[in-house]
Specification:
two-stranded antiparallel sheet; 4 strands; 2 domains; 6 helices; 181 residues; mainly alpha; 7% strand
């Protein structure tokens, strides 16, 4: 998805890295508004806004508030669910329940838990085999080998995140007494 990833001039945030594409905050909000409004026109009564990046949380929240104010509770509701992006909760679960901690910071925008999530979907996206061959199969002091173990951890993290997100959606629905009018 196209999201705010830093400023273009001068480059900030992820825009300091080649290949990054960014949007201005107002463009991001307009894009979300147009997409959600299109869904409403086609009969969707609940539009769930979740994001997996810190840089898009405020835009998702603001857009949900704008949509709900405009729609006035008639027919559709936009729900911003920040719990999906509860990375500190995910890390606490990984530390306490799975017994995995990252003992150091390698200085990259990478964490074991992110790689485990990605490997659970497709190990090729993290270039697992190449990393093993190059002796670079650790992240912040935690080995991603063997592959099967990290994939199993990733699946547990996906299940935890899914459960937390579903609970948050259910709480949101309960707070609006069944959803849109």
């Amino acid at each position: 998805m196209f999201v705010p990833e830093g400023d273009i001039e001068p480059p900030s945030g992820h825009m300091r890295y080649p290949g990054t594409i960014t949007l201005k905050e107002e463009t991001f909000r307009t894009l979300l508004d147009d997409i959600a409004s299109s869904f409403k026109v086609h009969g969707f009564t609940e539009i769930i806004l979740i994001g997996d990046s810190g840089g898009n949380q405020s835009g998702l929240k603001a857009t949900a508030e704008t949509l709900n104010a405009r729609w006035g509770g008639k027919g559709s509701v936009a729900r911003f669910i920040p719990e999906f992006y509860d990375n500190s909760g995910l890390v606490a679960y990984m530390n306490k329940e799975l017994g995995i901690t990252e003992p150091n910071d390698d200085g990259f925008h990478d964490y074991y838990w992110i790689t485990a999530l990605m490997m659970a979907v497709d190990p090729a996206v993290v270039r697992y085999d190449e990393r093993v061959r190059a002796g670079k199969a650790t992240i912040n002091g935690v080995s991603i080998a063997p592959k099967e173990k990290t994939i199993a951890v990733g699946k547990k993290l996906i299940a935890w995140r899914t459960t937390q997100t579903v609970k948050a959606i259910e709480r949101s629905r309960a707070s609006t007494k069944g959803g849109p009018n």
